[in-house]
Design a protein that fits this description.
about 300 residues; 7-stranded mixed beta barrel; elongated; 20 strands
């Protein structure tokens, strides 16, 4: 009987425990509702890239490529609120992080600054408008290295606490070369075909603008005297072969493109051209003999 009584007491105590747990859970839910109703609200972000158009969809034209890293800074009344928050793009406009951030409890607004690019080590510290000696990758044949070279910047000012995701619209701060290859007489582009962009400099000093227009100044680094070849990202369809590369804004001229088909190289020269920040330069090249061509200059965005 004593044992039975103990068992009954144990069950009774267990019931009390469940009741207490339910109470704590309910209290916790109420607390969360109160927080979401006016206090700590999680910061949610999404991304897009100012769009461009072409016969063949370029890499990273409207969305950050999957697994690309974005760093975000926040300031509250001009003071650092958090620094270099690392988020990962999902390829569909989403930005996620394993370390959530929250809006200020006092409901004050924040200013946000976001950067994507070829950072060899994760940025730290407060937001800096100076990026010394930013470098593009010389071998961009891999799509991820092409995408990583693309220096993108976005700002959002006076963002108030909200449940909806804050949408960044990134702008390209560098220049882009697009090359469209057309088969000339006797040329079969289905053979092994490679493209190189010749005599370009890889480094620049970048000065960002905190304003929402996200303009920037990009100038060659003072010690950037050695020209280098860039291997672009290539793709193809039934109409031809395409190559594209991210390059530092600079003056280019002379022999600029090498196209090799089936082991035979062809060279293309261009007149002096000043590549500008936020612009793309399109070269339509008929492959079959070396020739000169003039790039078509277009805004990188529509």
């Amino acid at each position: 009987m004593i044992r039975m009584k103990q068992k009954v007491l144990s069950v009774r105590n267990l019931g009390i425990a469940f009741s207490l747990m339910a109470c704590f859970s309910a209290c916790s839910n109420v607390e969360n509702i109160e927080q979401n109703d006016g206090q700590p609200v999680e910061i949610k972000l999404s991304s897009g890239v100012t769009p461009e158009s072409r016969a063949l969809t370029p890499a990273q034209s409207t969305q950050l490529e999957k697994d690309e890293i974005v760093y975000v800074w926040a300031e509250n009344s001009g003071t650092a609120y958090f620094n270099a928050w690392s988020l990962t793009a999902d390829g569909n406009g989403g930005l996620t992080s394993t370390e959530p951030k929250f809006y200020p409890i006092n409901k004050s607004s924040i200013d946000l600054y976001a950067l994507h690019g070829n950072f060899t080590s994760a940025p730290t510290g407060v937001f800096q408008t100076e990026i010394p000696e930013y470098s593009v990758i010389a071998n961009q044949s891999n799509k991820s290295d092409y995408a990583k070279s693309d220096l993108l910047y976005a700002t959002k000012s006076a963002v108030s606490p909200q449940e909806a995701a804050v949408a960044f619209v990134f702008k390209h701060l560098l220049s882009k070369i697009e090359i469209n290859l057309i088969a000339g007489n006797g040329i079969d582009l289905s053979q092994e075909t490679s493209v190189k962009i010749l005599n370009t400099k890889l480094k620049a000093d970048v000065t960002l603008n905190k304003d929402v227009d996200a303009t920037a100044s990009v100038v060659l680094s003072f010690d950037n005297n050695n020209a280098t070849d860039i291997t672009p990202f290539q793709s193809s369809d039934v109409e031809g072969v395409y190559a594209e590369a991210i390059v530092i804004p600079q003056e280019v001229s002379g022999t600029f493109v090498e196209v090799t088909v089936g082991g035979t190289p062809y060279y293309y020269t261009i007149p002096t051209q000043t590549l500008k920040s936020g612009y793309k330069y399109i070269l339509n090249l008929t492959v079959g003999e070396s020739a000169s061509a003039t790039p078509a200059e277009l805004s990188w965005t529509e």
